[in-house]
Design a protein that fits this description.
single chain, 275 residues, Ubiquitin-like (UB roll), Rossmann fold, 2 domains, three-stranded mixed sheet, 29% helix
Length: 275
């Protein structure tokens, strides 16, 4: 019996698949080339040449520019704005807020909001100034107009860094207190803060009202809000003690000092004796 000869079908050529593969590679290479050209354009065009500083501060223009760590010729897009802002806040303690914006093609706009001392913490024979956000500003010989804080022992004092205390809970309480007082617009009228232990706090308000906050226990916001309401209803010349250590707040006004009895002096020429 004759053998059948079976012919295999010719396999289709892979030219179509190769063409598709080549097209994909070409598209990728073309895209990368376009991106490369765009980046090269950004590198060449958007170079830092000018600085625009908005807002007033005690620091000079040169100090602010140096604190950015940037130099003319640096690319406006090839740096981390948030990292630069953080470094500037540390290097320039009296700046409370910084915003960096790019003003194309060649200008960096630096918007500044200055901060100031909210309290002066006694530290040895001097004072450490701290703002309402709890940032250390500087060490000075005098407290100036800031409220004097006693009973707090600082652990580390480096301008530009957050305040740290030997008793961490005490530092947390003080930081929260300053923040809440500032948010209610009361911080500038507090003349003294006395802390005993981690939580017990007494304020001196306008040098006339002693405010006993007592143990805080997470009620700072509620107590300071109530304090603002109480103070708003007191006459401006009121002095006394406001006890907020319990659930019921009590205000005890100071008793006025008795007026001295006037002394009657003899008129000129009188001796006070009869002849």
């Amino acid at each position: 019996m004759p053998k059948r000869i079976i012919k295999r079908r010719a396999q289709p050529k892979a030219s179509g698949a190769r063409r598709r593969g080549f097209g994909f590679v070409y598209a990728v290479v073309s895209t990368l080339a376009v991106i490369g050209v765009a980046l090269a354009g950004i590198t060449v065009i958007f170079r830092l040449e000018n600085y625009e500083i908005v807002g007033s501060t005690r620091y000079g223009r040169t100090d602010i520019i140096v604190a950015t760590g940037l130099e003319k010729g640096d690319n406006l897009y090839f740096f981390n704005k948030f990292s630069v802002q953080k470094d500037m806040l540390s290097k320039l303690p009296y700046i409370g807020e910084i915003r960096l914006t790019r003003k194309l093609p060649k200008t960096l706009v630096i918007t500044i909001k200055e901060t100031g001392a909210a309290v002066a913490i006694q530290d040895g024979g001097c004072y450490v100034l701290v703002d309402a956000a709890g940032k250390v500003l500087e060490r000075t010989a005098e407290p100036g107009s800031a409220a004097v804080v006693t009973g707090v022992e600082l652990a580390d004092v480096r301008p530009g860094d957050p305040m740290t205390t030997v008793l961490p809970r005490q530092g947390k309480t003080l930081s929260e207190l300053l923040s809440v007082l500032a948010s209610h617009g009361l911080i500038e009228r507090v003349s003294a803060v006395t802390m005993e232990g981690a939580y017990s706090v007494t304020l001196t308000y306008m040098e006339k009202i002693e405010v006993r906050l007592g143990m805080d226990n997470g009620k700072t916001e509620r107590k300071i809000r109530a304090l603002g309401e109480v103070l708003a209803n007191l006459p401006g010349d009121t002095a006394g003690v406001l006890d907020m250590t319990g659930e019921d707040y009590r205000f005890v006004p100071s008793r006025p000092e008795p007026s001295p009895t006037p002394t009657v002096l003899p008129e000129a020429g009188e001796t006070g004796t009869e002849e």
